[in-house]
Design a protein that fits this description.
- The longest helix has 26 residues, at 226-251.
- The chain contains 13 helices and eight strands.
- Helix 11 (196-206) packs across helix 13.
- The chain starts with a strand and ends with a helix.
- It is globular.
- Strands 1-2-3-4-5-6-7-8 form an eight-stranded parallel β-sheet.
- With 278 residues, the protein is α/β, with parallel strands linked by helices.
- The protein has one domain (2-275): Phosphoenolpyruvate-binding domains (TIM Barrel, Alpha-Beta Barrel), CATH 3.20.20.
- Helix 1 links the parallel strand 1 (2-3) and strand 2 (20-24).
């Protein structure tokens, strides 16, 4: 998945093989809780959904809306927001930063089978009631958001949740539910504080099939040359596919494959410990 409201960038990402283009409308409460963090605030709009829909013909168009909220003099309600993005052609709608089962139930009712329902589990409270959430009818898949979840658990570095077993436990619950799931984001292989290839191996070992391509993969708001953006996507996706093929081969490798993924997890813990100064 890649977040953008730029039609030219969206077309490039789609052509490179990105499965989902994401319009990221979430902003309510985000600045306050992520203040001081180098995280992405996109401020995309309903009009961006309308603008991208004619362009996205091979990938899926996904929209991250705001958390469930009522209308005020400054914002429209969740119902109005969801109605608009469905009208403009969203294939998938992601609900961020919820804390209760009722919020997810309300979201499912508002979408009403007109798009895929994709809850983003990123609060400790959502984790606490996750078993009940996963039993709700109408959920198509789930994602685990490591930025806010790391904040909620007072971690220094978001990938501590990989090192301490949290992501493994969450993925295990999702796997038992039968729903497709994913977690976090990645840069290009060879890049990132925790190199992306190590994270991709964790995805495969935990059965995850979804990931967000981060700004570290391609910061298209800073790169003005679309030729460079195109090359970055083409080479980056090619590198990811190469790591995926390696992982698939290891999954077929029985005990040797388990050793391969076990060794990778040890390396993840070592890198996280170094980053966190332990």
């Amino acid at each position: 998945m890649y977040l953008t409201n730029n039609p030219e960038v969206a077309a490039i990402a789609q052509d490179a093989g990105v499965a989902r283009i994401v319009v990221d409308m979430e902003y309510i409460g985000k600045d306050k809780r992520q203040r001081g963090m180098n995280t992405s605030r996109n401020y995309h709009t309903i009009e961006d959904v309308k603008k991208l829909r004619p362009i996205i013909d091979k990938s899926e168009l996904m929209v991250r809306v705001n958390p469930i909220h009522e209308r005020t003099d400054k914002v429209i309600s969740s119902e109005e927001e969801i109605e608009a993005v469905i009208e403009y052609g969203a294939d998938i709608i992601m609900l961020p930063y919820f804390k209760t089962v009722q919020e997810v139930r309300t979201f499912i009712e508002l979408v009403d089978h007109r798009a895929k329902v994709y809850p983003l589990i990123e609060t400790p409270e959502a984790v606490d009631c996750m078993d009940e959430i996963l039993k709700l009818d109408g959920i198509d898949e789930v994602h685990f958001g490591l930025n806010d979840l790391g904040l909620g658990y007072k971690k220094k570095f978001l990938f501590e949740l990989l090192a301490d077993g949290t992501v493994e436990r969450l993925c295990s619950k999702a796997r038992e539910s039968g729903l497709p799931y994913g977690f976090g984001g990645i840069a290009r292989p060879g890049y990132g504080l925790l190199p992306a290839e190590k994270i991709i191996r964790e995805h495969f070992y935990y059965g995850s099939s979804r990931v967000i391509l981060s700004r570290a993969f391609c910061d298209s708001r800073e790169i003005k040359d679309m030729g460079v953006v195109r090359e970055t996507f083409q080479e980056g996706i090619k590198s990811i596919r190469s790591v995926e093929e390696e992982c698939l081969e290891q999954l077929r490798n029985g005990e040797k494959g388990r050793e391969y993924f076990g060794e990778n997890h040890k390396e993840v813990i070592e890198v996280v410990d170094q980053i966190c100064g332990r």
